[in-house]
Write a structure and sequence with these properties.
Shape: globular
Order of helices and strands: EHEHEHEHEHEEEEH
Distance between the termini: 20 Å
Structural class: alpha/beta
Length: 163
């Protein structure tokens, strides 16, 4: 079973069900959120490997979700899945920090390919930089050091391997 966790943020139940069914068929674990507030709670508390995000949410615009997620995680991959086709919207999302943009309607094969590509790129970037940053946590793979809130956390070799 694929151990990766994907947060699906979509208020339209049929689209959300299509995405989650597709993820289930490809052995991904997933969480769902039907609005921006729930998405932010899920993203900050469950640390997903990727977010699939609709822009038209009932309580806030998806771009606000992107900006808030970027305030606590620079590296969490975000793919927008939206019916908005305006070029300026796409540019705004890319400038806010998304990794990819899939326009509705979409094929599930394309969505899965974009998920794989985004995960490949984020993994390669992490390996290249030698560091992982998520909110207040920073792991320096080269130095085998862990920092929380800017302060080094001393771990045993076994604890570091688990982390």
């Amino acid at each position: 079973m694929n151990k990766l966790l994907i947060l699906v943020v979509e208020d339209d139940a049929p689209v959300r069900n299509l995405i989650t069914t597709t993820l289930k068929l490809h052995d991904y674990r997933f969480l769902t959120a039907a609005n921006g507030e729930t998405a932010l709670i899920e993203a900050s508390s469950h640390n997903p490997d990727i977010i699939l995000l609709d822009l038209g949410l009932p309580d806030m615009d998806g771009i606000n979700v992107v900006e808030t997620v970027r305030s606590f995680s620079e590296n969490l991959p975000i793919i927008v899945v939206s019916a908005r086709d305006d070029e300026s919207e796409k540019i705004k999302c890319l400038d806010a920090g998304i990794n990819d943009y899939v326009q509705k309607p979409f094929s599930t094969a394309e969505l899965m390919a974009r998920i794989r590509a985004t995960l490949r790129h984020s993994s390669a970037a992490e390996q290249q930089s030698g560091t992982f940053i998520n909110g207040k946590l920073k792991i320096d793979y080269v130095a085998h050091s862990v920092y929380l809130d800017g302060e080094e956390v001393h771990l045993t070799n076994y604890e570091y391997k688990i982390l």
